[in-house]
Structure formats: C-alpha cells, structure tokens
Amino acid sequence: MLKYGILDKQNKGIYFKGGDIMLTATGVTVRFGKRVLFEDVNIKFGKGNCYGIIGANGAGKSTFLKVLSGEIEPSKGEVSLDKGERISVLKQDHFAYENFSVIDTVIMGNKELYDIMKEKEAIYMKPDFSEEDGMKAAKLEERFAELDGWNAESDAAIILNDLGIEPEKHYKMMSELEAREKVKVLLAQSLFGNPDVLLLDEPTNDLDLKSINWLQEFLINFENTVIVVSHDRYFLNKVCTHIADVDFGKIKVYPGNYDFWYESSQLALKQMKEQNKKKEEKIKELQEFIARFSANASKSKQATSRKKTLEKIELDEIKPSNRKYPYVDFKPDREPGKEILQVKNISKTINGEKILNNISFTVKAGNKIAFLADNENAKTVLFQIIAGELEPDEGELIWGSTITKSYFPKDNNYLFDTDENLTEWLRKYSKDPDETYVRGFLGRMLFSGDESLKKARVISGGEKVRCVLAKMMLSGANFLIFDEPTNHLDMESITSVNDGMRKFKGNILFTSHDHQLTQTVANRIIDIKADRVIDKEVTYNEYLGIE
To answer: Is the pLDDT assigned to residue 18 strictly greater than 60?
Structure first.
C-alpha cells in the first residue's frame, strides 16, 4: 500500500514531507509462492525525470508498476508518496467505461475532481435545496476551483483533439467508439489534470504514428515524474532520462536512455572480458562514449540534466547485463540474381471490401522495403499473396529464377496446431534431420535442455515467434517477408531480430510498428494509401520528415 505522515481521510494514507523526490520504493520485495520476482528494491523517483522500466518477459515490469500504484501489495517493504500528490495510471481495461461519455471518462483521470463535479450536479438538481445543501455546495465549489475544475472539460477536449479524437465524439458514449479510439481516450484519462506521478504500461500499443509522436513530445515536456514500461526502443530513447533494469530479481536505475544503457552494458561486458586493460584506457573509452551520447541528447528540457548526469557516471557503476539474447542470423543458401520480383496490378476484395486496388512495384537487388498502409489489413493481405498463401483477384507476380522465399505471418497460430514437440516441429523444416542439429538450433533461440521438448501447441506467443524465426533461418531463403515480427517479443529478442534483419544480404519486405527496427533496416518505403501508392527510396525517418 502507498504510505503517507499526516492522516488524510480523502486518500486514507499517511504523508511524508515533500521535495524533489516524488515517489519512493523502500525495501520492496514481491514473491509469488516460492518465486521471488524482485527483492529489496530501493528507488527514489525524482521530479522531472522519466524512468523506463525494462526487463525480459516475466521479469516483473508490469507488476512493479502495480506495486507503485498501490494496486498490488508488496510482500515486504513500502511505497511512499509525498503529501498532496496524485498518481495517475494508464488503464488497461478498454471496456470499463462503456456507460460513460468520452469527456467524463477523461475527467475521471482526476477522481477527486470528477466526484466533486458529480456531487455538485446532484445537489443543484435537488428540488428541496436546503441551507445545508448550500453550505455544502459552497465548500465543493471552493475545492472545485482549487482543482481548476472550470477548465476541466476544455482541458480534456484539448488532449482528445491532440490524440485525434474529433470534437463530435467527445460527448458520445464510450461504447460507441472503435477499439483504437478507446485506447486513446484511456491514454487521455491518464494524462489529464497534470498528475504528479504518471505510470504508463505500454502506452504506444495500438496508437498511430501521429499520436505516438504527440505523446513523445508531451512526455519530453512533462515537468513531473513519469515511469513507463515499453518495448518500443525508439520511444524509450526519446523520452527517458533514466532506465530501471529488472534483471534477475533486482531493479537497478541507470542514467540515460535505452541506447545508453544497452551500449554501456555491452561496453562494460567487453571491458570485463579484458581484465588486463589499463584502468586509464578504460576510463578514456568510457568518457568518449559518454561524450558521444551527451552530444546526441534529445533537444528538450531533459538534454541538459541528462548530460550532467552522464558526465558524473563512473565505470564501476555500469554493470554488464545478465540477459540472454537469441541468435538471429539469416544466411541465404545462394545469392539472388538481378531479377527479384515484379508485382503487377494486384487487386483483392475480401468480404465485399476492396483491400488492394491495382498495386504495382518492382523489387530491386538490395531492397529492404518497409510497408505502410492506411488500412492495416492491406499489408497482411499483400504479404499473404506474395508468400503464396492467398490468390489475387487480379494481377500477377513475376519472380526471378534465383529467388527462394520465407514468410513470417502476423498470425502464426495455424503453424502450431499440432501435438508435436518443438524438436519434431522444427525438424520438418530442416535440411539436416539430425536431432542434435535441430536442438542446437532451438538452443540458439533460448530453448535449452528439456524446453526443446515442449508441445508446440501450448507455447507462448513470444516462443512461437522465436520458433518461426528459427524456421526461417533454416530455410536458407534469399527473400524474406516479415509481417510484424516483433509482436510478443521482449526487448532482447527485438534487438536480435533487428540486428539479423539489418545484416541479411538478401531482400526483405516487412511491416513493423517498431520505429527503430524500421529506421535501421529499411532503405525503401512503400505506403499504400486509399487512392494511391507512395514509393520512395529513403529511410523511415526521411520519409516521415524527422531527424
């Protein structure tokens, strides 16, 4: 539970004296049975900082957020919040507010304000309005004004507009909105009312690019405390001043963004392996590394403080990560020739909806093409056609004679509808049927020992992704098609997939919501609009017009 110094009836807690430290976790331990998720966590979250919580799947990132919010009681230790401060949490239940208007749902982000607003309305609607009611209403009006209640609706409307929810939808019921719009409303709810501490669990999920960019700028300029869990490395790099790493039961905070944490941990690992290296050389290398990151700091209020923090860091503070990264390396059996693929006048209608309309392009040698589309289904249907899993209504594909392809489907569940274990499942796709060879390949994808004997039907979403990646590596194909390959993956696996795609010597067609992967892999962008196709040989950032 949140601990607080002076008893407060509203929040039912005890407050400690405030300052620049907004939220404190002291000796926090969480156990589930015999399993210790994390132990003896001591972190002070400072005002004006944004903390990115990272860690492998199952490490306890989301659980830690729930402990900080008071939703989950720690097995040991306490979380304390300064007097008068408010925590706001991004809600995950998209159907919890079906019977409320959009604007009311947003204002509910400040529960005290919303409750006062509704209590006032109820008093003023009483037919037998008494003197006692008048006195109570006066007190409510005073607190309402203190909470800036008169601007609540306009403030809520501004956030909704910025997130792309049109004014005509502000007073509709939540039940009338589409799923992606509900996601935006709940995000607006968490941001409403300038909370002192903002807890966000995967805030970029199901957001369009424009909304993500707006959220980035909002958080960069947010003056209070942000604690965020995200698998989006680009997002973490943009907004974070600190990284909190959940690793083997501990949570340790490092200054800087995700890239700084990753590269510094790799540097520390390298230097640990080179114990004979002189201390002075190590220090010099570290200083050069920090200087580079300081120079590339985000152009925001955070940049100055981030630079100062980085400059204070010492070698001994940087510890190599204990995480395991899967080995992702796509090696084609033969080089592709000059003729790769021509897509000519492809059209497809599904359930009466025109998904693809006269799509044409030519894949050239060395092309790694990222696909964007107004209609999400358009990318998947196009990839299914190119992969040979779906026939077009019109048009044709002309392949080069040297091309061999492998496909990563967005929905891969059909591949695992079998009672085979993983070794048996993968052996079907291997040119070498030897069990030792196949299990060795599974080991590369972090299925060690008896894990390679798991039933294919019951493995998790992230495990399925790693299996499909192993299947693609075994194929030896020189033309790869990826439909959202980072879905269900932890940060380590995403990094490995990113590196594998970037180093691949053949052609790639792909779509991904991971900004960093798209930016570092693609050398061409094809954007399928409702009325046209935009095709440019540029990087993702160049296409978006950002640095």
So the answer is: no
Stronger pLDDT, 375 or 56, i.e. the higher one: 375
Please work out, in degrees rounded to the nearest 5, the angle formed at the alpha carbon of residue 475 by the alpha carbons of 474 and 477: 130
> Is pLDDT of 230 > 70?
yes
- Quote the CA–CA distance of 519 and 512 in Å, as a whole number: 10
Q: What is the dihedral of CA 480, 484, 485, 488, to 10 degrees?
A: -170
The count of residues in the chain is 547
**Are 49 and 196 within 8 A, CB to CB?**
no
Sign of the Cα torsion 143, 148, 154, 158 reads negative
Residue whose tokens read 């892999």: 521
Q: Is 57 exposed, middle or buried (0-12, 13-18, 19+ CB in 10 A)?
A: middle
Closest by CA to 240, choosing from 209, 268, 200, 269, is 200
Domains within the chain, CATH numbers bracketed = 2-86+233-317 (3.40.50), 99-182 (no CATH), 341-544 (3.40.50.300)
Q: Distance (Å, rounded) from C-alpha 198 to C-alpha 187? A: 11
Distance of CA 405 to the CA centre of its chain: 29
Q: Is residue 405 within 8 Å of residue 480, measured between CB atoms?
A: yes
Do residues 478 and 333 make contact, with C-beta atoms less than 8 angstroms apart? yes
Residue spans of alpha helices (H) in 109-195: 111-124, 131-146, 152-162, 179-191
Q: How far is residue 176's CA from residue 159's CA, in Å, rounded to a whole number? A: 19
Q: What is the CA angle 173-174-178, rounded to 5?
A: 120
Q: Which helix (H) or strand (E) holds 104?
A: helix 102-107
Query: In angstroms, what is the C-alpha Rg of the chain?
Result: 26
Q: In what order do the strands lie in the sheet with 507-511?
A: 405-408, 479-483, 507-511, 368-373, 524-528, 533-536
Q: Provide CB contacts within 8 A for 79, sequence distance 6+.
A: 1, 2, 3, 23, 24, 25, 26, 28, 67, 68, 70
Residue 533, pLDDT > 50, answer: yes
Tokens describing residue 135: 């006195």
- In the DSSP assignment, the letter for residue 162 is H
Tokens 């994808």 appear where?
Answer: 445
| pLDDT score of 309 more than 90 | no
